[in-house]
Amino acid sequence: MSVMTCQMALYPLNTTASSRVIAEILAQMDWQGVDVQVGSMSTVIRGEEQVVWEKVRSLYTLAAQEHRIVLNLAVSNECGC
Question: What is the domain count for the chain?
Answer without folding.
Answer: 1
